[in-house]
Design goal:
alpha/beta; elongated; Rossmann fold; Hypothetical protein af1432; 449 residues
Amino acid sequence: MTDPKTSGDPFALIVAPEGRTQKTLVRHLMLLLNYRYGLDLVMANTFYEGFSAVQDQEDRLICAAAILDRKTDSRTSLSSLNFEGKLPLFLIIPAPFQAQYEELCHRLDDVWFVTWEDALSAHSPGSLQKTVERVFAQRGVGELFSEDVLALPFEQMQERVAQRVRNVKALPTLPEVAMRIMSLVDDPEGSVDELADVLTSDPAIVHKLLQVVNSPLFAGSGHKGGWSMHDAILRLGRREVGSIAQQIKLMNSLVKPEDSFFDLRRFWEHSVACAVIADRLYRGKLLRLESELQFNDYWIGALLHDAGKLMLGFFFWDHFQELIAHMDANNCTFREAERATGDVANHELLGRLLMMKSNVGELLAEAVGTHHTVGSTPSDLACLIHLADELSKELGFSYLQDEPRLYAAEVLRKLGLETSAVVDLRDRLGSELPDEIHQLVDHCTAAPE
């Protein structure tokens, strides 16, 4: 249980005994309160634990939520959680208990009832999400990325959310080596030797990286192999080799939890396909882009554009499974399934969170956070990643087989493309591309020899 007395940040208290239903509801609350609103969370199994944790913390406690599976006659226990009606208390209870709890709390202010049966409903006005949104709006508790926040200049937005992003639980941290590589690649004063030293300092990267840079995809079909690290950096460039090294480190650092059935291989195939397709589109000058893009920006942006899906699949498997089932039943995209099931904390938002926590800069954070919801004036990077994402599905590299494609009208309009022209783009990518993508993923994920 987090100790609110040591963090100093605004927080929410969740009281929930052990149980399968309680676990599902706690994860839903975590998505809503922690990821969407950026509140720190304090977990407790009993009223006594909860009250002990929040004593003398009224100024920072935003709300309390109790997930109850039985009746209680103790009004005092409930009132202690919201300081005698001074803060919102959400009681999440089985429907048959609602009348008894309403009677128990009839003189207690700011208590909100949500039944287990309605809690996870996407459309019920009595759902947990709708109730929290309504209560928070009345009290001026803003979302982490509200419209007002998103309208701020990037540096101000980053400063505004930095404290709350720190509170987000289960948010992966990009490996330190990957961040060092990113810093060197972005440094105009960085040298080939400096990058080579960092790369060779990590044995987990070296062998796989040399396999990849010596493959036909990067070295050309006539290359017979044999490049050293220094050779590869000189011939391909710091940005390209550094980005591939980051890819290898990322693909071998994120370990799936045991209770998740997320298909990590399929995820990386899609992500790598997006990166390779973005590279083909850009290098081949197949798109009408207005600005020059750096290899490391579009490669890492494409590679990590669906990082939010990985977070959902790793840490919120039940919710991810619900989204996949909705996609399958309704033949819709993942983003459409998120909207249809309440959009509690979507994968674009989660990807933006990860990018901002990792301090990757405005261009990458914005492209990852808007690769579906591109807005009326998408950047060239967002357009490139969006198109590569959808084209990867055309080539069979989607998380589910035969996922529907949905090209944003704003992207097509900016690039001067008709929907029919996308088929021509797909064909111009080359028939050998799927095999090269599979080979690249194999090289990056192979067990050490």
